[in-house]
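Subject: Protein record for review, amino acid sequence with backbone structure tokens
Concerning: The relation between a protein's sequence and the shape of its backbone.
How to read it: Take the token row as a discrete description of the fold.
Enclosed: The protein record, placed directly beneath this head.
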Amino acid sequence: MTTKIIEKTVFELSRPGLTGASLPTTDVPEADRSVIPGRMRREGKIGLPELAEVDVMRHFVKLSTLNHHVDKGLYPLGSCTMKYNPKVDEDAAALTGFASLHPFALGGFSGGAVEVMAQLGEMLCGIVSHDAITLQPAAGAHGEFTGLLVIRAYHEKNGNPRRDVILPDSAHGTNPASIVFSGYKPVQIKSGPDGLVDIDALKNILSTETAAVMLTNPNTLGIFERDVKEIAAMVHGVGAQLYMDGANLNALMGIVSPGDIGFDVMHFNLHKTFSTPHGGGGPGSGPVSVKEHLAPFLPVPVVVRDENNEPFFDWDRPDSIGKISGFWGNFLVMVKAWVYLRMLGSEGLREVSEWAVLNSNYLLSRIQDYYGLKYSGTPMHEFVADATTLKEYGIRNIDVAKRLLDYGFHAPTMSFPLIVPDALMTEPTETESKASLDAFADAMIKIAKEAAENPELLHRAPVTTPIGRLDEAKAARTKVLRWPIPDDL
């Protein structure tokens, strides 16, 4: 009520010719007070602490600087694509017509929102050369699960439910979990000495019991699977499907289309590739696109267009695996991705991939003389260095990671993939400038030199942060999940 009175006052003040004598009062009229039930009216002071606005603002700004975030500095988590996201996308998602839209309204009362979903799906399918898509999955792993259920329904429809799903030893950790959850048995295949799928090993385990092969391309080492067309032919030869984990699509857009090189189904990570900040639990979105033969099995409803080109929710899909998400998915994430795609266009998306690959290779060229590199193939948008070169000084990757905090950087992804000892999986993304990359490279080089000259410094790092090196084992065993922290900890 008071807010409305203030808004009215501001409006009155903006009128031309208003004099001081005629300024409206901000007191709430008795007529307006009467609409508030007596039991809900405050009789006395609230008793809240009184603080100046400047003190409150400085408090929260200080808190924000204690956390590392992509607005503050480089966040080179490999495979996670923690890139800067344009604020215009956030502004679009905050528009009242989107942000205040009730999920039930999308069932037929908000054509604009459904049009956004339809266009987004069409653009995503165009990028990867697929024929149909569901926007329902709420994250990448949810997309994996959905895609595998679609594959399962396809095989069951054909009278052969099958048993196994093959994946490389460098696969994302969610891949085997999704395989098990979808009712299949994961079968691991070792990578070759070049970090790529061993074609001969794959031939030996492919069979008519194989439901699918799951690949990430580029793989988690950042290396493109150059034999993917041969792999696709082998997989299809036994009646299986080829699934692509789209976590690394940031390297391919506008350059290579997964559908054109044999992938039947894949999931996107809108929260990695298409401009939604992620981390800290969400929000995410993992749409799943498929080739035409898998389209009947997508979750209901699917956004399609009628004979007048108007979008609508299609529930009449008898072979569908059913609904896999509350309502229609994370809609505001879709809005951000839609704005991002419309803003960049096809040429802009290609530049995103080209800059991601260029930045990654430039950064690797700066630090490769100081860190190990188990797989030496030319990477694309990310690379996996390691701290094995510092082992003789008693330094591990965690020491490098902690010391980076003292230089104002977040660490790369540590100890993944598991096939690289002491891994430092690094993805600078396309949004970092050369100055930013050079600053990070300088810090990494300086840390490598410190390892030889003063290893104890790295063992104590970080030394400039409000909280120093934690006892990792104790932190894992004694979790503090409440506030205030008990005195005995």
Q: What stands out?
A: The longest strand covers residues 210-216.
